[in-house]
Amino acid sequence: MAEPAVFLVHGLGGTQYDLGSMHKRLKNAGFVTHSLTLPGHGTKPEDLVGVKAEDWLEAVRAKYREIVGQHEVLHLMGMCMGSLLAVETAKREKHAKGRLVALAPPVYIDGWATPWYRGLRPALYHVPGLPARMKVEEEDPYGIKNEQLRAIVKAKFERGENFHYGWVPLACIREVDRLRAMVMKDLKRIACRTLVIHARHDELTSLRSAHYLVEHIDAGGKRAGQARMVVLEDSYHMVCVDNDREIVASRVLEFFEANAAGSLGMSDGDPKMSREEMERLLEGARDDLGKGDFAALFDRGIPDVAWFQPGANRTSGIYRGRKGLARLQGWAGKGVRFVAFGAPAFNANMAVVPATLQCAGLSSSGVIALAMRQGKLLEARWFPDDAAVENAHFGGEPVPDGPTPAEREFEAAAARSKQLRKAPDNETLLALYSLYKQGSVGDAVGGRPGVMDVVGRAKFDAWSARRGMGRDEAMREYVALVGKLAEAEGAKAA
Q: Where residue 469 sits, what CATH number does that domain have?
């Protein structure tokens, strides 16, 4: 792919959402983002028992090897334990296709909120059965200095919401300690430029961690400038969501040589396109909108292209990427199209054109604003002259942006499938693969692999056979199949 990419690795007990809005900020700046759910995560804390540091590391390295050939530029970024995994992956894979960002890396667990008896952990590891039974609870301040946000997080924990594990087994901390020991060795082998972002008042890990990484990646000054550090003054450990989150986003984008304005859904004003190229892209977008073909419109965009539908009704919201398109087609596919296009106006990377939205008797005039860059749509925004007209026509309440309960259950099942002790038979594996792809992406895309690629061809055919199946149905069937497999293993174990 021509688009640069970023591989993001989440922290202990968390998910890809640990990195706050970084996925969206990076996508809006023109990056493709990749992530994974680490072994033992996304289900329940008990599943971390028995998971080794090597399991986490191999999962990250396997994902890295899967995607590194897909992009000319691939950056690595991790949060907390994820930053340790990103560092070790960069070291072992001799990463040189991009840069490395370590957010709040816990090389040392010595922050101001760690108890005085933290040094006794190694002794506890040797007490028979204790590491698997002893719970290490998430406690106030939950890595967050912002009091309002901390109160929200505390309430979520008290309600038992499954957004982050409320505790991890001591055995898991033992594996983090083993990972820390791996990371501290041979840091001079890291070949890429590195940025370490760390809060001065991190309650989990002190600035000593950041200094250690920078000093050893720089090889004691022999490679001065290979690594650098940004110190935050108004955050605790969860730097991507705390008070300094905007500083984190801007420093990361700057380090990746992207403009910070792009992270806000805007661009730097330079479309990297000629006027003629912008006019051709606009003409194609108008044809798509005139047919009500939002799938074709999204195909003209970056992977995270977004449609912004204003108002206070069931259609209102931000529809981003493949999942957003599926939601958008749920209502816009029922006769919505745009007509009566006026003369466009161009300003920097923006094209603004008058139009009228039509749908089952509704005729709502307004303007469409399209942001473009390097031959792709970044986003499309509809601005009706009178939003109240659309509110009255469509009715209902806006659908919240973000993963739905069904999507969260789907991703939890995907994580659970990786915990199966025995690989299913080939037919079941193909069913799992095809349902997951249909539920996460939609209908099969790309060409059919050649006859020499037997496995790839079988997977593509299985996915193609699901064509036309709705994402919700595919997600339900996937969750049910994983549950059936896990239940069968449990019955055998009993």
A: 1.20.80.10
